[in-house]
Amino acid sequence: MSESILSATLGYVELETGSIPADWVLSGNPQTRSKILGRSGDLLAHAILWECGAVSYKWHYNQDEAYIVLSGEGFMTDEKGVERRFGPGDVAFFPAGTNATWRHPDHFRKVAVLKESVWRPVGVGLKVWKKLFRVIGITDTSPLLLAVTTWTAWKLR
Length: 157
Hints:
Elements: E1 16-19, E2 25-28, E3 31-39, E4 45-52, E5 55-60, E6 64-72, E7 74-77, E8 83-86, E9 91-94, E10 99-104, E11 108-115, H1 120-135, H2 143-156
Antiparallel strand pairs: 1-3, 2-5, 3-4, 4-11, 5-10, 6-9, 6-11, 7-8, 7-10
């Protein structure tokens, strides 16, 4: 099965207007612009282009987020009160559940990959399951094949 490959010239992506939740805004203009660039086949992750203007706000990461800054700068203060600067070329990762305070003096533009977190035993089980399929030589595991294999294994127990 062929999957679609993400390819975008970021300067030509039409962004949609959004905003930072009003009760999270500390100062400035909470308007944002973003566009989902692509989603994973399991719908647990997506890539997004996101930007904002001069603003300061609190942020709660309800998904894992990894990103690279394209332009502008942001100053993030973590829960321990430590401030870090992020500028063009910088890469960051914020696990789900992280809280931070952000300040953008002018503008900030990033490409981010957001991923839903799953309960650790489920994630480990999935990795073991996929490894088992690779070991026995099954590399293209369709949902139908997985369902039939699971049903068969259940009936044979």
